[in-house]
């Protein structure tokens, strides 16, 4: 929209303020002149001769509705495209996070054959990246605060490029491990810096949406990785080199883009680079007056210094200052519960869930994993749409409630599959004449839970026939050590199937329903909100450190859950594992209900006060907390107290 048109909207807002009785500061003759500037052809709203807003929101009659409509129009009109460019280039970091964590599963299928990798090496190549991400996210706080957001994003893209080259050119498994660690270091830095950078550049009415776009890019990267995995899995040799190498393209793009993109204005103000900060603010705010925003940031930095004192390491200052302590607890808690709800296990396990439901073709299972990743991606898009409508609190609570129920459905699918588990109908003799433990199982369920055994069977209509429990090939879990399930050719000839970690039953589709429900609920809220909320809840002085800690917690729990899943399933059975995640999710629900205030539409500088007023009860040790909770109960409104209400409490 042209400058003239946005001036009109601004004028409309001013007129509305007058209409609503706000103090009029302009001279009486100014209004008449400005009124004639209104150009209804360009502006959706206009003031008629009685000073009433027309055409702003069909059907809205009250001044409140009119004001909201005009404000919305104003915000839309004055958001320059540059802020979107900045966000998209930063979110390439999210894309690389998703791509590099996702691509490894397909690459591993090929690598373990070509490089003859043991189970330990496979595990190392997957977890080393996540482990390195945890370390670099935790240490990224120092870099972020000291060097600035922009150098950190440039560093992350360089690490992504270097990692891609090393991986694509690797001749041995040790080099592969090195490459995966380098990529992990990049992921960790990007995961904590990008949301902060976007949040600091975005105008408050768009902040949630733009930061959530970063998670959309993460899930987009995971989906793209699944497609690339599918496409290159047909190559007889070296397919994995292309899978790994391709990630250099977005990384180079991001590096080049960030050579021209600016530093975060808030970081610049904090470091006293005021002229530069003003320049950047004007650049990203287009034709808006930046004075108010600039002064707001500057004042809050000055106040923060007074309030928190300047001494000691930032993490220590965060812990002794109640508002930041509560924010940190909330931020880390959100990230912990995101991972404890089992997203990465569910995604990783999706191929098996499809197999359970009757998909017995390996290639098809790879493509169906891409469908899972696409579902995650498309429902994250729903989150991008909802975050500024519902707000962070409702979206997260709704999402986690649905996720908990979906986990229960998923678990029930496994319960049913275990209860009607097919029997073992014959025990072939072991050609190696070594006594295997697999002979002791008379049902599929016991056999499938033993990591050394798998179930080899045929289907007759919907019935399982000619089934046996046989030792698994120690090099891969995809086939048995001997017998008709020991390779694809034999299986095809015989018409038999190999089930390593599931049992074929007619109820298995329940797990598939659980999987789809899970992604539908998780992706719009619990996927993106922990990142979005963390980018906005800390005051500037604590933002890098707060995000470093919470991202570190995310990666640590990511490693923990993925590494323990198979053992958990072994001890608790598969349904036990999913019931456990449902239990974690339910505890998370209580935590979030008690701790997450609504941050939608607030300026970053205003958010700290949500934690000052003890709206978040977590971590509060003050004795009058009960008095405050009672106050809220009597007021009957949870998190929507006006400033006046909140100050009443003190
Ligand atoms: O927000 C993201 C997203 O939900 C991804 O799908 C998941 O793999 C990540 O662990 C998570 O942090």
TrEMBL record:
Keyword Cell division: no
Main location: membrane
GO molecular function, one term: myo-inositol:proton symporter activity
Catalytic reaction annotation: myo-inositol(out) + H(+)(out) = myo-inositol(in) + H(+)(in)
Membrane topology per record: Multi-pass membrane protein
Entry keyword annotation includes Phosphoprotein: yes
Compartments where found: Cell membrane
One Pfam family matching this protein: Sugar_tr
Any one annotated GO CC term: apical plasma membrane
Region Disordered, residue ranges: 19-43
General function of this protein: H(+)-myo-inositol cotransporter. Can also transport related stereoisomers.
Name this protein carries in UniProt: Proton myo-inositol cotransporter
Source species of the chain: Pelobates cultripes (Western spadefoot toad)
